Amino acid sequence: MSKIILTGDRPTGKLHVGHYVGSLKRRVELQNSGEFDEIYIMIADAQALTDNADNPEKVRQNIIEVALDYLSCGLDPAKSTLFIQSQIPELTELSFYYMNLVTVSRLQRNPTVKSEIQMRGFQASIPVGFFTYPISQAADITAFKATTVPVGEDQLPMLEQCKEIVHKFNSVYGETLVDPAVLLPDNKACLRLPGIDGKAKMSKSLGNCIYLSDTPEDVKKKIMSMFTDPNHLRVQDPGQVEGNPVFIYLDAFCRDEHFERYCPDYSCLQEMKDHYSRGGLGDVKVKKFLNQVIQEELEPIRNRRKEFEKDIPEVYRILREGSKKAEAAAAKTLSEVKQAMKIDYFNDAALIAEQSKKYQ
Ligand code: ATP
Ligand code: MG
Fold first, then answer.
1. Atom of ligand 1 nearest to the CA of 10
2. Beta carbons within 8 Å of 154's beta carbon, 6+ residues apart
3. How far is CA 72 from CA 76, 78, 197, 217, 356, in A?
4. This prediction's pTM
5. For residue 354, how far is its CA from the centre of ligand 2 (angstroms)?
6. Nearest Cα to 135, choosing from 179, 170, 178, 101?
7. For 188-223, what is each residue's pLDDT tens digit?
């Protein structure tokens, strides 16, 4: 069986370092490993519209931002198909059929959707499209027969729901859809990177992000203003490492060699953590180190972005070509789905013969 990746992002803002450690960096590694037959990377504009229906301009503006972030991180259109969700009508059609296989109460139990509804303050006015987006996500994944879906932890409930739809479809209509496997980051700190405000998740919609395209000055300002241990008031006080966003970011980004370069007082992160827990290590020193580590990671990304920004029409051309290729793949799956559901009437010679015999 072919090895196929499908993953993507909502064009609700520029991409941030949470996306980078949660999924983007891994995608580039997988792309360059050469182990995959197809890699589909989707800009999920239709999904973004489910909670931004009154602000299509935001979605429209952010398509190019996300595409530039992709290219600057090393996604290569020669190896990965970059495409825009709304340009593939087959995805909507698949979603419509999958809706019959999912109950309202099952959707209500999805913990990510639950917390997102709360976060967006929808209360009783949840858009139906938003409520059902896990179904549309199952359509995205299965349309490309994805075997591997590299995502952050918040996507686990979506993958579970997708697998249920696959099993249900295959048991009702016969073996047609491919059961996908989720690929979470190995590093625990990268599963769900917190925001600079200490909130549980760095998220475009919460405005607590360090963006991949932030200037070095902005990155520094954001890091120096980061939430840390609120009880660590004086340098000599013992500090809390557990749950402290600055240390979670270091867990996500720093390697031993960074200490050699930027903070030779310690040889590894554990030594720095021990000192912080004991007391005697100030937040400013830790933040300055974190700033150097993150700047080193972001600099090449920022520089590559500047190159791609010089030819924006070329970026749209890449997305157009990718969308064309993606549509062909989705159309093939849709035709198999319709055949399995026995709604491909005009190609069904046996059906036509049977019906005409009935009326002879
Ligand atoms: P929105 O607030 O509009 O939902 P978002 O910041 O949550 O935006 P998405 O486009 O929903 O971003 O997510 C894209 C991918 O990035 C998903 O695979 C998701 O799991 C991952 N991701 C998003 N935020 C984080 C984070 N803070 N840490 C790790 N992975 C993340
Ligand atoms: Mg999200």
1. 10
2. 112, 192, 201
3. 9, 14, 26, 19, 60
4. 0.94
5. 49
6. 101
7. 999 999 999 998 889 887 889 999 999 999 999 999
